[in-house]
Write a structure and sequence with these properties.
Layout lengths: L52 E2 L6 E9 L9 E9 L9 E6 L7 H8 L5 H6 E6 L16 H8 L10 H21 L1 H4 L4 H15 L4 E6 L1 H12 L4 E7 L4 H5 L11 H5 L1 H17 L13 H17 L7 H11 L6 H13 L26 H11 L9 H12 L1 H8 L27 E8 L5 H10 L3 E9 L9 H13 L8 E2 L28
Parallel strand pairs: 4-5, 4-6, 6-7, 7-8, 8-9, 9-10
Antiparallel strand pairs: 1-2, 2-3, 3-5
């Protein structure tokens, strides 16, 4: 496949991925199924028009706001705002176009996460492309789902439920009541918005952003939940795919429950196998930790078996005797999230577990050695309701809260402690008050203009490698690239090999040979801990996909 050459037209965007304006091109390819209730992708919608300004004075990131229809079947009705961010190509003389980035979630604010992860993008990609992201509809600085009147009210709601997941009848009742209350609050605030934050809606937004920057076809990197967004875009606009990298994939059939109208027996995350992926990754953590010294992994007990026994003993102890606010469930949640970044995240996680083993609450994260520059965009409100609005409206989950205890036990049988965490992660959907008006359930194999590059990590605690294999099979034309490493997404678990293949692909369409496997740049626990102890950090994540 060859896609060499400059993308015609002007562009530019901002909000964790940015764009500008110019001619729009409407794809008029063969008829294909579309999202329920959605207009045909060939329907003309006015392209967003915006003005780029520095996000803060002196910033290299530009920000803008795009207006898009709330409901693409009623384009003359209510509009909503999308916050957009852009970092211009660092070698403008060799610029190829715009690369759009979605950081996952659902509910990830691109205006925050793209700048935060900008240096992780391959250098040649940063040189040749404007990198643009945005807060998807319902999220962050865009027109957002916000179900509380004040931060104090939101904090009070968070404190009404247990951390991690519920343990015991009293906590289960409190958890279920809290999320039922959240759904009722959201229904009262903006029920119309709740029905129009689907993945299909966001895919239509993405196509308008593409038109606004003037690119005739889309160049896109989506990680975690961003892979479902990318696959949805490819299904709706197959002729508009110039280059698409999907990193750490969700099986589309798991996300959609095979487009079935029947009540699902399992949650989204259990259908995905997130519990099994987390358990397999935890096994690797324990094995590698136990295979090295306590100087490199603080939780090491001298062998893999002894370290596994130590971990299981710690979990049993925390069930009966929490360490301060560190309960069993909070610790399991921290372990799952701590597995997302292998280096140095696993070292930090080992330090927290060793603190708990010694009966001490883990220390706060150490401050960076040098002051960090101010972020280009202040952190927006990103309450749980934002991710829930997408997940619960878009992906089917059991609607009876009473079944989740049995799902927890089934999850524990097949995946241990991580199974308990992932079983409860979708319980908020049981009482969520809205279903997406426009859902895309496939087909996933509409032939795209160019081959999609699908990247998967062998030991991923959230989107297991089997999901990437499934995505590669579902798409009409895809090439699988394997990361023989650990953690969630190759983007934030660096591999120069992966970066090199992605760079070549984005620049001229070159694909890795079939069956290519890359290695990470750094193995977990490969260097001694910082002098003076372990800098403990929190790991990225939540009870949602990314």
């Amino acid at each position: 496949m060859s896609i060499r050459g400059s993308i015609a037209g002007s562009r530019h965007c901002a909000a964790a991925l940015a764009a500008t304006v110019i001619c729009s091109t409407i794809f008029t390819g063969p008829e294909r199924p579309q999202a329920d209730g959605m207009p045909s992708p060939s329907v003309t919608v006015p392209r967003p028009d915006w003005i780029w300004i520095p996000c803060i004075p002196g910033s290299r990131f530009d920000c803008a706001t795009a207006k898009v229809p709330l409901d693409y079947s009623d384009t003359g009705g209510r509009t909503i705002d999308l916050a957009v961010i852009r970092r211009k190509a660092t070698d403008p003389g060799r610029r190829l176009g715009t690369l759009f980035f979605n950081p996952g979630g659902p509910g990830g604010p691109g205006t925050v996460q793209m700048p935060r992860n900008y240096e992780a993008f391959p250098q040649e990609v940063r040189e040749r492309f404007d990198i643009v992201s945005w807060d998807p509809r319902g999220v962050g600085h865009s027109t957002a789902v916000n179900c509380f009147d004040s931060p104090k009210e939101a904090a009070a709601w968070r404190s009404s439920k247990p951390a991690g997941f519920p343990v015991g009848e009293q906590q289960r009742a409190a958890w279920i009541a809290a999320y039922k209350d959240l759904g009722q609050r959201c229904r009262r605030r903006d029920p119309e918005l709740l029905r129009h934050v689907s993945t299909a809606d966001t895919a239509h937004d993405l196509d308008l952003l593409r038109q606004a920057v003037g690119d005739p076809q889309l160049s896109y990197l989506g990680i975690s939940y961003g892979t479902i967004l990318g696959a949805t875009y490819a299904g709706l606009f197959p002729g508009k795919v110039r280059a698409m990298v999907l990193d750490s994939n969700i099986d589309p059939q798991a996300w959609t429950h095979h487009a079935s109208q029947s009540e699902p027996r399992l949650t989204t995350f259990l259908r995905m196998g997130a519990d099994r992926g987390a358990a397999a990754t935890l096994d690797q953590f324990v094995t590698l930790c136990g295979s090295t010294t306590a100087a490199r992994c603080a939780f090491s007990a001298g062998s893999p078996k002894a370290t596994r026994d130590k971990f299981d003993q710690l979990m049993r102890r925390l069930r009966e005797h929490p360490v301060g606010t560190w309960t069993y469930a909070r610790t399991v949640g921290d372990v799952v999230s701590g597995l997302y970044v292998a280096h140095p995240g696993w070292t930090d996680l080992a330090g927290r577990l060793q603190d708990l083993w010694q009966g001490h609450a883990p220390k706060p994260s150490a401050p960076p050695p040098l002051p960090l520059p101010p972020p280009p965009v202040p952190n927006p409100y990103t309450g749980e309701e934002q991710g829930a609005a997408v997940l619960c409206g878009d992906s089917p989950n059991p609607r009876d809260p009473a079944v989740y205890q049995a799902l927890e036990e089934a999850g524990a049988t097949r995946a241990g402690d991580a199974g308990r965490f992932w079983a409860w992660a979708a319980e908020p959907c049981a009482t969520w008050p809205a279903q997406a008006a426009n859902r895309y359930n496939g087909p996933w194999n509409n032939p795209t203009a160019h081959t999609v590059l699908v990247v998967g990590t062998l030991y991923d605690p959230a989107t297991p490698y089997a999901g990437t294999q499934a995505m590669a099979k579902e798409l009409a034309t895809a090439r699988l690239l394997t990361n023989n490493g650990y953690g969630h997404t190759a983007l934030i678990n660096s591999s120069s090999c992966i970066n090199a293949y992605e760079s070549r692909y984005f620049i001229d369409g070159s694909l890795p040979p079939p069956g290519t496997t890359c290695q990470p740049d750094t193995q977990p626990f490969s260097s001694p801990m910082p002098r003076g102890g372990v800098a403990t950090g929190g790991g990225a994540m939540a009870g949602d996909v990314s």
